[in-house]
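Private note to self, pasted from the team thread so I don't lose it. Backbone tokens:
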């Protein structure tokens, strides 16, 4: 009996301890994420300018309008998917390639790791303004000094070049973070597997694809998930770099939501766009996480 009481008290103490640790995070997430999200879903079925106290229930009209009478949203959807595909592929391929080089026998590894990571710690708004200055003033000065035509191109004024610029700047800004993740993954690969592959006569390329790559699949899964989610939600860097222009050529869904809700004072319609973006992010994230999880192997 005494043992049962002691066991019960221990379990009760552990439950109290667990609750004490979890409760603050649960409260903050509920207040700052859960409740606003439910309010967003509620407002997506209503017409509201964000100022007046009264709102009008409109049912599914906001969602129907999204795909039938809003060319800007369709254009932003198209750009967002193009941007996401390009950024995710470039950033993960380049990060893997640079990681392999940094993990090789080269001097100054620490310097290069820090150099690649520095842009990631700078605010994306500041990064956008810096590259806006570079693409206008700096490139113009370089073109006048060198005569190279590539610097005379309108990197932010031409709709196609503006898309390329946003992709390249986004990759440059975030690359260091993914390099750090891949470095951690590669350093966790057991040396015994590498040595066994060398004894079997496998070259460096074969060892990478047959040993290293399968063993760092958890890192790849995380980087793919993180890069996809961030790309689909990207707003601030593009806002400060191009403002979504020229026209709506570089307007992502998140920026279109901002313009709809805060510039056009249409919070109900903007909420509907937010819910659609949330669904898109969830569906794509679940699919790609399940896919990459199935490819992971145990050490």
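Design output:
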């Amino acid at each position: 009996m005494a043992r049962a009481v002691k066991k019960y008290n221990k379990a009760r103490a552990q439950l109290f301890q667990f609750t004490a640790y979890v409760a603050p995070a649960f409260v903050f997430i509920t207040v700052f994420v859960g409740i606003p999200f439910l309010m967003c879903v509620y407002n997506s079925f209503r017409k509201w300018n964000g100022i007046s106290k009264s709102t009008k229930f409109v049912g599914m009209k906001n969602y129907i309008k999204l795909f039938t009478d809003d060319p800007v949203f369709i254009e932003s959807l198209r750009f967002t998917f193009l941007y996401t595909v390009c950024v995710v592929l470039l950033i993960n391929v380049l990060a893997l390639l640079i990681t392999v080089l940094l993990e090789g026998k080269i001097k100054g590894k620490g310097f290069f790791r820090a150099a690649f990571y520095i842009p990631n710690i700078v605010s994306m708004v500041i990064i956008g303004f810096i590259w806006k200055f570079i693409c206008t003033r700096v490139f113009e000065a370089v073109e006048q000094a060198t005569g190279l035509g590539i610097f005379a191109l309108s990197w932010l004024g031409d709709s196609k070049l503006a898309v390329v610029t946003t992709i390249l700047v986004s990759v440059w800004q975030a690359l260091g973070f993914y390099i750090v993740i891949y470095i951690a993954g590669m350093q966790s690969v057991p040396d015994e597997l590498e040595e066994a592959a060398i004894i079997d006569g496998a070259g460096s390329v074969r060892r990478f694809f047959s040993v290293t790559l399968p063993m760092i699949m958890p890192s790849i899964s995380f980087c793919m998930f993180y890069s996809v989610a961030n790309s689909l939600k990207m707003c601030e860097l593009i806002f400060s770099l191009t403002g979504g222009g020229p026209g709506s050529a570089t307007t992502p869904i998140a920026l279109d939501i901002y313009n709809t809700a805060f510039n056009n004072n249409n919070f109900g319609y903007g909420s509907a766009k937010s819910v659609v973006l949330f669904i898109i992010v969830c569906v794509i994230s679940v699919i790609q996480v399940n896919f990459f999880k199935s490819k992971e192997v145990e050490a």
